[in-house]
Design brief:
14 helices; 8 strands; 9% strand; disordered N terminus
């Protein structure tokens, strides 16, 4: 995945030991300026993140839409569910609500979350943009109950590494600087809810998939494809393999655990470090991994829903980014040689 490159910001801090990884507490919703930091653990981003610089108009990944100007309005039951949560929050904190109303306007910043960013990438971008700290965003994602968002509530698999992975919709947004972390996250979740239209939901159901299945497939397509032209063919390979009961054998799924999960487990215990391997290594696990592996863009989601009408089961990519497709192991072997990935015997 090629991210927009304009500014490189390196965030390097000391890592601390992690415990109580999946604790949850119900409450809150996006929309408040109240600042609450969840600092159960000092999560840090130990890598370098490429932060898109926003100046003037930017073409977002969501086909020119932003969270404040969505092409697909929230479904009525989704809107009602979220508004009820917001109302409960305001009633429980009347003084804070009054203070927020009378307070001076807060500074805002435009932030782009690129397609293919992982949850930790998205949080690093928000941190670098002054929206909320990386640690507070990580703790909130792990400790806050976001199940008043129907897509999160509908998740069935409990073996996923991060429950919000794949649901922080890529795009360009306006955020309040020093936002409450659950509000910043809620903005991205709300945008994802709105992007899955009634037509798409019916299309997904008619094929026997869940929305989580499709977002997971889309996330793999996003990480496996460096261009949109090949997305529908890679999608076809995933669908064809699933239909035939084959393992997906996609390197991107275990790479996600190695690069975007294990660094945040903060332990030397090999059992803990490797606990998700069986659920995400598609060389060994059956069918789809336990959950999405990145934030898929609209092109990848469209490709996941509309695979090309081909019978391919294999693909490989050469050093120049050219894709080779095959329907049989023998054809795939020849493609590996042609792509320079294997030497002819």
């Amino acid at each position: 995945m090629k991210k927009p490159i304009r500014t490189l910001i390196c965030v390097c801090l000391v890592l601390c030991v992690l415990s109580g990884f999946f604790a949850c507490s119900r409450g809150g919703a996006d929309g408040s300026d109240e600042s609450t930091e969840y600092t159960t653990h000092n999560y840090t981003y130990p890598g370098t993140i490429e932060v898109p610089v926003v100046s003037g108009e930017i073409e977002s990944d969501t086909q020119g839409t932003t969270e404040n100007n969505l092409s697909n309005p929230l479904l009525q039951h989704v809107e009602s569910n979220i508004l009820n949560a917001e109302t409960t929050k305001a009633q429980n904190n009347p003084t804070k609500a009054e203070e927020t109303t009378s307070a001076a306007p807060k500074k805002t910043v435009s932030v782009t979350i690129p397609a293919g960013a992982t949850m930790v990438d998205a949080f690093a971008i928000l941190d670098a943009s002054g929206v909320a700290s990386f640690s507070s965003l990580m703790n909130t994602a792990q400790n806050f109950d976001f199940t008043y968002y129907p897509l999160i509530e509908a998740q069935k698999k409990t073996t996923r590494a991060f429950k919000l992975e794949g649901y922080l919709r890529a795009g360009t947004y306006n955020f309040t600087v020093n936002s409450k972390p659950e509000d910043a996250i809620g903005k991205l979740l709300r945008s994802m809810e709105s992007s899955i239209t009634t037509y798409m939901r019916n299309q997904i159901a008619s094929r026997g998939y869940t929305i989580d299945d499709v977002i997971t497939i889309a996330s793999i397509i996003q990480r496996e494809c460096t261009n949109t032209a090949d997305m529908t063919r890679v999608s076809a390979i995933i669908h064809n393999r699933l239909a035939q009961g084959m393992k997906l054998e996609m390197k991107s799924t275990i790479a996600y655990i190695d690069t975007s999960v294990k660094p945040y487990l903060q332990t030397q215990d090999e059992t803990v470090l490797n606990q998700y391997n069986n659920y995400y290594d598609t060389n060994s696990c059956a069918a789809l991994p336990a959950g999405p592996i990145c934030c898929p863009g609209s092109d990848a989601i469209t490709a996941a829903l509309n695979p090309a009408g081909v019978d391919y089961l294999y693909f490989c990519v050469d050093k120049d980014g050219k894709y080779y497709y095959a329907g049989t192991p023998e054809e795939h072997e020849q493609n590996l040689i042609a792509a320079g990935l294997k030497t002819a015997e």
